[in-house]
Amino acid sequence: MISIKSKREIELMEIAGSIVYQTHQHIKPLIKPGANILDIDLEAEKFIISKGAIPSFKGYEGFPNATCISINEEVVHGIPTNRKLKKGDIVSIDIGANYKGYHGDSAWSYAVGKIDDDKKYLMEHTEKALWQGIKQVKPGARIGDIGYAIEKYANEHNLGIVRELCGHGVGNHLHEDPDVPNYGVLGTGAVLKEGMVIAIEPMLNLGSDDIVLEDNDWTVTTLDNKPSAHFEHTVLVTKDGYKILTGE
Ligand code: MG
Ligand code: MG
Q: What is the CATH number of domain 7-244?
């Protein structure tokens, strides 16, 4: 069932989303060659707690850290360990915050120093694919419209689409109905209504669609080892469109 949020719930989710956004801004300056990703994770955790929230991911199905940090060919769910970023890496950081029981969820990919043109292309067009998806959101639109827009954009730019993982409803659970796939057919799927909140999160690859799960049972990487990018916002369906909860 897709929940419709009350005014009070939306207020809490606006705060949760804002904390996620602020956490991204807080850690952004730390993303540079030589940075230890575990330090970035710990700084994000400290910051989220300082804002009166708790990290949504820590302990979620046993995930050990506050953030997911995925480098280059890692698609999502990278576990922050003692590992240093290198010039030319791209790193996707996924952050969730739970404020008084309500979640915000946003992932962003960042360049570590100067990156090559292929990675630049991947990041630019994965972010644009996210905006293509977000632009579809309004009452009466369908979940399939979002996936269709993202898929079309990815295909036009010759990027692989991760199909096994998708966006999702957000609320007092981190993952709620509906699934929000990054592919779809226009005019199909659940109808969006005012008060629904969904996370839209294209994961696009420079190579093929295919992914593998690493031995740690968390980290997802591309099968061909080519880089992957991930951009995600938590979005509220409003009376006449949408409001991004995890943005400025
Ligand atoms: Mg998500
Ligand atoms: Mg996320």
A: 3.90.230.10
The CB density around residue 128, as the number of other CB atoms within 10 Å, is: 17
The alpha carbon dihedral of 185, 189, 195, 197 has a sign of negative
Q: Is 141 left (phi over 0), alpha (psi -120 to 50) or beta?
A: beta
Tell me how far the alpha carbon of residue 98 lies from the centroid of ligand 2, in angstroms: 12
> CA separation (Å) from 56 to 105, 126, 153?
8, 24, 30
Greatest alpha-carbon pair distance for the chain in Å reads 48
Q: Give residue for tokens 């970023």.
A: 85
Residue 105 CA, ligand 2 centroid: distance in Å: 5
User: pLDDT, tens digit, for every residue of 206-246?
Assistant: 999 999 999 999 999 999 999 999 999 999 999 999 999 99
For 130, the 3-state DSSP assignment is helix
CA 15 – ligand 1 centroid, Å? 17
DSSP-assigned letter for residue 59: T
Instruction: List residues, by chain if needed, whose CB lies under 5 Å from ion ligand 1.
Output: 105, 199
Angle at 38 between CA 91 and CA 24, to 5 degrees: 50
Q: Which of 128, 122, 212 is nearest to 164 (CA)?
A: 212
For the chain, the structural domain boundaries read: 7-244
Q: How far is residue 22 CA from its own chain's centroid?
A: 15
Contact 129, 154 (CB under 8 A): yes
pTM confidence score: 0.98
Q: How far is CA 170 from CA 86, 108, 147, 196, in A?
A: 33, 17, 17, 8
